[in-house]
Amino acid sequence: MAKKQMIAMLLAGGQGSRLGVLTQGMAKPAVAFGGKYRIIDFPLSNCVNSDVDTVGVLTQYRPLQLNSHIGIGIPWDLDKQVGGVTVLPPYERSGDSEWYTGTANAIYQNMEFMDQYNPDYVLILSGDHIYKMDYEEMLTRHKSTGAEATIAVMPVPWEEAHRFGIMVADGAGHITEFEEKPANPKSNLASMGIYIFNYSALKSALIELSDVPNCDFGMHVIPYLFRKTNNLYTYEFHGYWKDVGTLTTYWETNMALTDLVPEFNLYEEFWQIYTSAVAHPPAFFAKGSKARQSIIGDGSVIEGGVKHSVLGSDVVIKPGAKVYDSILMNGVVIEEGAIVRKAIIAENTVVGRNTRIGEGNFEPSRLDPKVYNSEITVIGSRSTIPEGIVIGKNVAIMGTTTAADYPNGVLESGEYIIKRETKA
């Protein structure tokens, strides 16, 4: 196999449990974003735009939609004879069989894949962040310092620093101290979970730590290399970067795309975001329809009204229906006269005639207050909401529901209906 200067290993196996019913049937990196994309499109596109042409995608939780989306990598020009994109699920070995138990353990289990390219450097990425980064610039920085490992960091507000792995560095970016979620941080440079390692250093560390339970980069590999070599440097990033790991941040980051001049611009020609997309006819706006400050996906049919919303492909908004401040994923149908406010509605869901979503006042969730803690109502994929129902705020719904599931035709704020788990 031809030698590669740098390969990327993209960690995409996480469940993303803080996204609630959105990830009941798929891994977090496969969740739709910005109408036509999925979250994993952003790090994959960064690889292409940075001339990284060999990418291993490590999958685990509910991988079907993710695997189908990636395919052989054609949309990202990663269908290479040597290199390209390779999906790497856990697999059975003679003598043992185990799931990936931590981020570093997942990489360790794929040492054979990395060895076949004999890379000088390995780039470790997470599959669930929204950002644009030139990894070539980070590699240039890594080479210039002679570091064993370079950690991408970005300044965060001091009051939030306790939530991150924090790097304390000198004026040259040499890391002098590493703090994992410190109560009293000495720096506000937070690790982004993006690393470049000399492969020799990474390999020896992974072998040395192979017996550590749930072996993780932030908790184990970085501290180990820090103690052993004291030759770790930062790469400071000042661009746009979002972890869309909660329903609130996911909703806010999508909504920000509808600004006249969005902070994160999907329309830049010099750093395009690529995706796997089915061919659709153009979006259609019927006479009398209204659409303002919204992203509308291909194949959508708008007969009613939509304002400040993000719609995927093949969304149908019937006459008299209105959608405000919402995310509707591919194939969602809003029937006649229905009103949707501040909701996230996943793929292929049907909202019945004259149903109203997002009514009333906020109430704490009776399902999981850590996940559902805003006015956003969330409906999982392939769900059905009957006609004439009134649904409150901070509600979670999953599955095919009937009028009998809604006492007096109402689902109060903070309530939930989970009928079934979506099949992946």
Structure in a nutshell:
Helices cover 17% and strands 27% of the residues. It has 424 residues and is α/β, with parallel strands linked by helices.
Can you describe what's shown?
- This protein is α/β, with parallel strands linked by helices.
- It has helices at 41-49, 64-70, 103-108, 111-115, 135-145, 199-208, 217-229, 247-256, and strands spanning 6-11, 32-33, 37-38, 54-58, 84-88, 121-126, 129-131, 149-155, 165-169, 175-180, 189-198, 232-236, 241-243, 284-285, 290-292, 301-302, 305-307, 310-311, 316-317, 322-324, 327-328, 333-334, 339-341, 343-345, 350-351, 356-359, 377-379, 384-385, 390-392, 396-398, 410-411, 416-418.
- The strands form seven sheets. A seven-stranded mixed beta sheet has the order 5-4-1-6-11-8-12. The chain has a seven-stranded parallel beta sheet with strand order 15-17-20-23-26-29-31, with no helix packed on it. A six-stranded parallel beta sheet has the order 14-16-19-22-25-28, with no helix packed on it.
- Helix 2 links the parallel strand 4 (54-58) and strand 5.
- The protein starts with 5 loop residues before the first strand and ends in a 6-residue tail after the last strand.
Largest sheet: 7 strands, mixed
Largest beta sheet: strand ordering: 5-4-1-6-11-8-12
The shape, in one word, is elongated
**Portion in strands:** 25-35%
The end-to-end distance, rounded to whole angstroms, is 34 Å
Count of individual helical segments: 8
Computed CA radius of gyration, to the nearest angstrom: 23 Å
* Average pLDDT, all residues: 89
Q: Which percent bin holds the helix content? A: 10-25%
Please identify the structural class as seen in this structure: alpha/beta
Strand segment tally: 32
> Regions with pLDDT < 50 over 5+ consecutive residues?
none
